[in-house]
Every structure is written in structure tokens, then in C-alpha cells.
Amino acid sequence: MKIEDLVEDDRGRGVFRVHRSSMTSDDLFRLEREHILDRCWIYIGHESEVENPGDYRRRTVAGRPVFLIRSRDGQARVFLNTCTHRGALVCRRDSGNALVFQCFYHAWTFNTYGELIGVPGEDAYGPAFDRKAMGLGQPPRVENYRGFIFVSFNPDAEDLVTYLAGARDYLDMVVDQSSSGMKVIPGTHQYTVRANWKLMVENSLDGYHLVPTHRTYLDYMASLGTDDSGQTLHNRTPATAKSLGNGHCVAEAAARNGRPIAHWHPLFGEDSRDEIAEVRQRLVEAYGESRAYQIADTYRSLLIYPNLIINDLMVATVRYIEPVDARHLEITAWHIVPREEPPKLHSIRLDTFLTFFGPGGFASPDDVEALESCQSGFRATEVEWSDISRGMLKSVPEGTGELQMRGFWRQWHANMQGFSKTNVQDREPADSESAAIR
Amino acid sequence: MNGQVNPSRSGLMMAHFGNPTLRQLVEDFLFKEATLLDEWRLDDWSELFTEDARYVVPTTDLPEGDPERDLVFIDDDIFRLRARVKRLNSRHAHREYPWSRTRRFVSNIQAQETDNGEISVKSNVLVYRFRSGEEAPYVGSIDYTLRWESGELRIAYRRAVLDQEGLSSHGAVSIIF
Ligand code: FES
Ligand SMILES: [Fe+2]
Fold first, then answer.
1. What is the DSSP code (8-state) at residue A356?
2. CATH number of the domain within which A89 lies
3. Pick from A119, A56, A143, A50: nearest CA to A91
4. Mind telling me how many Å the CA of A212 is from chain B's nearest CA?
5. Does A206 lie in the same domain as A109?
6. Do B70 and A364 lie within an 8 Å CB cutoff?
7. Which CATH architecture has domain B11-162?
8. Under a CB-based contact definition with an 8 Å cutoff, are residues B50 and B149 in contact?
9. B92 — alpha (psi -120 to 50), left (phi > 0) or beta?
10. Is residue A287 in some structural domain?
11. Is residue B6 within 8 angstroms of chain A, CB to CB?
């Protein structure tokens, strides 16, 4: 099948479908590497994960072994984790603190700037051997947006802020929650899912599945007396969705349960009411009433194309999706929190995270099951298409519609054909609407 | 000694090998727990816990993780633990419906009475889980604080630590580990 035909997008008739080979084909996966993972900005980590000089985090990003390190000068840097001598991994722990990295194989030594500072028996090399040119490799581009560090393996990538387009404003809504800044707390949720990475992207933005798939979660919340009890499909799920440019998308809804920033709920207890009011007051003072409303009183599931999800629901998680091959993805998910907040609110926050999110939560395991189930179903290759047309003819997007997924897929399809942007004419009427959040 | 404890040397035995009676007691209790879990008798399992119980599973990258401070996988009080059981008993915990087959092996049990009359326990656990062609084992240790309540042993604290580097191929901690 030709690449052009993998996505059928007919706005007139409201048809949007994706050929399932996009989720199973090794050839298409190789093409995704070339056209998407090697060209876009890819998230590597948050600066709070490397607080002090020498702090490092080892990661796999877009297939490459890399590590993020705070150099001696206080700058966060990213290095390709391979010895320039013959290839061994130079950083061999997932995290730690070190001011020098000695390769165990032949004992070449590198500092926190990646410079090669030690070569045993250097006099055996000829004049062409230039130690200065043998420092650790770096991704061609590394940029930090308000603590979120991204790399690009495309030297010609547009700058990060331009790339983020409309997603920048939503990233700001996460960062602006706290005047002290945000930090990622220790402990990560790492798990493998036997499914194509794009299924996880879709799932993370999918408001339609919430009620049927996560019934046990909703029942539990109802049993605690949240206002989710007895609600219908429509007022329980994300209220609207937007394409934000460059493939970035968001699904938004009015917050139903409490948020430590700064949406009080009876479950939090009377004694936290004043503290939350104070947090709220600070937001209003800093950003005005309507921005404070958006920051505090809405849920946002944000995709930063192609593979970073920030789910800012009751609390906020940063979820990185590493495409492993056509049939496997790896998740690394973190909990991002205000650097400073009242202890009571902080402990509510930690507890709230675990009910919904993560491998031991009441929701995420069922998403994993859904993804693997779809991937298994794809083996019936006679059924060739997946339908993603929900809400396509609506002039105002609904939370249970799929506009946000179509935004992702349109960008994907453009990229796969070698274009960096989608054709503006592909947009839906609802895309231009700045639909109010109810 | 042929299983017979010499009373004159019991102090020494306690110090060096632990009290065999206590360990047997604890062993019986843990074997019973494992059976309840393997047979999916989760309501009965939840009744093994005290009202102030806590069940914690730290993340794979931070086995020493503290739920007061760090991100963990599970940090249940008795209410969420019962809700977890209710969820697994429903037909809507999709990762476990239909239920996976599990087989638990509990070993290397060490039990020690604490000053306040509770029993502090360490154990090694291997849980095989079979479902949908997946055969990944969960391997790790479980520490307990057990307490006597109206003549029965009860779990006041259960901390299950996975040895895996990540939840590769499990995708979740969808069973009780
Ligand atoms: S491969 Fe690193 S020193 Fe030789
Ligand atoms: Fe979900």
C-alpha cells in the first residue's frame, strides 16, 4: 500500500480511517524513525531530575542510548551514551552523581562536559589522533523550555518554541501552577506494552473510552462521594478538544474531582479548604481570573507530538512513550509536582495520583489491556481499517470526539510522506473554533 | 537435635536461628495467604488485614521508595485495598478478566517478635502469572508487620518489593503482588 493511502481523510463525508498496517509493519516503523523520531523534538527529561552538578539520568530516546547530566558549570547537557573509542556504554547506571565517567573497557575518561580527559598510553597514538575531537557525541539540538528538556536529531529542526506552537500555552499551564517552579519527584513508572506506540498516543487523548473502560475507577470515585456519581457519558468526559499545530493536540474538560491546584473538593477535608483558597488567590493575582480558572479548574490531556503526553487531571503526570518496534512500546512516567506546597495538599496529591495512574492504579492497567487487545486484533489482516471519524462533522468538538487523534494522525501522515506540516486545508471546521470550556 | 528444642539452649537458639515455633506459625499464615491469592479468594484475603493496614509496592527503579515522599506503584489503606479487591472481583478490571492463572512460591521466611508484641517478617516471593500467552514472573521480597487480633494473626503492613528493573512484559501490577 502506498503511504498516501494509509490515512483516508474525507471531511465532506466525515470519513477518517487509518490503515492498520501503520501499526504492524516493520517497514513503516523504519520510515517512522526516519521521518518522525529522527526529525521532531523528543522529550528527554526534566531539569529537576538533575538538580546538582554531576547528577545524571540514563535514558533511551528515539532508540538511542543517551544520558542527561548537570555539568560542573550548572548547565544541563545531553550526551550520546557510547564511548568514542569503540562503543561501550560510558554511563552504566540509570541515575547517580559523577564528575568523571571512565569507560570500563579501555579506561578512557570523560568529564561532565563530555570532553575526553584521559587516555591510557596516549603516546601510542599518531599525530592524527586528536583527543579534543574525541569527546562524547551529542544530539545535534538540545533545548529547554521552562524545565522540560528536548533533543532533536535533526540539525535543521526549527527552534523548540516555534515547534511547540499552541502546545506551549498548555505547557505554561503546568509550569505556572507553582511560583516556586515544578519538579519531578523520585520514582518512575516504567513498563512495556505489547502494542504500537501510536495506540498509546490515541489512548492518552481518548475521552470516548473513559466510561466503558474505566468503570471500576469511576465506581470507586463514586463510592467516595465525588460528583462523578450518577453522571452521564457526556458530562463526565472531556468537554472539548483542539489541534494545536505541528501535530500537538489537547483534550480538555472542567475538573470534576478535586485538584490540589486549586480546586477544592469535600474529599480533601474541610481543613484543606483555606490552603486551597490561598493557592487559588495567588493564581488569580498572578494571572487573572480566567487564566487561573484554566490552570486550576480544568483537566488537560496534552500530546506534544510525537510521543510525549502530559496528563494534567486531578494531578499531573508526564508520560514518555518510546517506540521500540512496530509491536512494542515502553512507557516512562513521572509525577510532576510544585516544588513547594502545603504538606497536607502534597500528601493528597501523592495519594490521588495512585488511584488513577500507573501500573498499580485503578485505570492504567486496563488501558494496557485495551492496547494489547487492539494489537492482537490487528493480526486479522482482512479487517484493514481503524475508524477515527467520531465527531468529524460537528462544528464544535466534543470531549468524546476524536478530533485530537485526527490532529495527530494528520501530522503523522504528512511526516510519513516527507512533509513537515499538514496541509491547512485538512483542518476541520471545529479546529478553528476556540470552543469554550464548560 | 532432631527438631527437639533443648530448653537449656533455647535462648541461644532464639538468638541464632529464630524461634522455630514462631516461624512455623508465620509460614502457615503466609502459605494460607498465597493460597487465597492463587485461588482468587480476594475477599477472604482482604480480611487478613487490620483496619489500620497499609499495603505498599514501590517502583522498580526505587525499591526503597517512601510513599510519603516518592512515587510508588501502590500505597493502599484498608479502604483502597478493599476497593482494589472489589475491582478485581468485578468483570471490569480488564487486565484481570478473565483472571490470570498464578502460582506463588514463598520462601526464605524470617520472623521476629518486636518489643510491642508484633511480628516482623521477611520473605521471598516468586509469582508466576500466565495470561494471553504471557508468562512473566514477578520476583521479589515481601515484608510484613503481623499483629495478633482476637487470637488471629492479621497483616498491619505489607510491603512488596519487585526485583525487576522495570515492568517489562508485565505492563502492570494487575494482580496482588
Ligand atoms: S571502548 Fe571505551 S575505552 Fe575502549
Ligand atoms: Fe484510559
1. H
2. 2.102.10.10
3. A56
4. 9
5. no
6. no
7. Roll (3.10)
8. yes
9. alpha
10. yes
11. no
Is A31 part of a structural domain of the chain?
no
- List residues of A whose CB lies inside 8 A of any B CB: 94-95, 185-194, 213, 215-216, 219-220, 223, 330, 334-335, 347, 350-351, 353-355, 358-360, 362, 364-366, 368-370, 372-373, 376
| Number of domains present in the structure of chain A | 2
Q: For each of chain A's 438 residues, which pLDDT tens digit applies?
A: 999 999 999 999 999 999 999 999 999 999 999 999 999 999 999 999 999 999 999 999 999 999 999 999 999 999 999 999 999 999 999 999 999 999 999 999 999 999 999 999 999 999 999 999 999 999 999 999 999 999 999 999 999 999 999 999 999 999 999 999 999 999 999 999 999 999 999 999 999 999 999 999 999 988 887 654 444 444 454 578 999 999 999 999 888 888 998 888 888 889 899 999 999 999 999 999 999 999 999 999 999 999 999 999 999 999 999 999 999 999 999 999 999 999 999 999 999 999 999 999 999 999 999 999 999 999 999 999 999 999 999 988 888 899 999 999 999 999 999 998 886 544 666 654 333 332
A328 and A418: one domain?
Answer: yes
B140 touches chain A (CB under 8 A): no
CATH code of residue A189: 3.90.380.10
> Nearest residue on chain A to B71, judged by CA atoms?
A187
- How many C-beta atoms lie closer than 10 Å to residue A280's C-beta? 19
My answer on whether A247 and A395 are in the same domain is yes
- Return d(Cα A91, Cα A95) in angstroms, integer: 9
- Judged by DSSP in three states, B109 sits in strand
In a domain, A196, yes or no: yes
A387's grid cell: 475508524
Complex ipTM over 0.90: yes
Task: For chain B, give every domain's residue range.
Answer: 11-162
Helix (H) or strand (E) run with residue A204 in it: helix A197-204
Q: Which domain holds residue A111?
A: 43-145
List the grid coordinates of A381.
Answer: 489482516
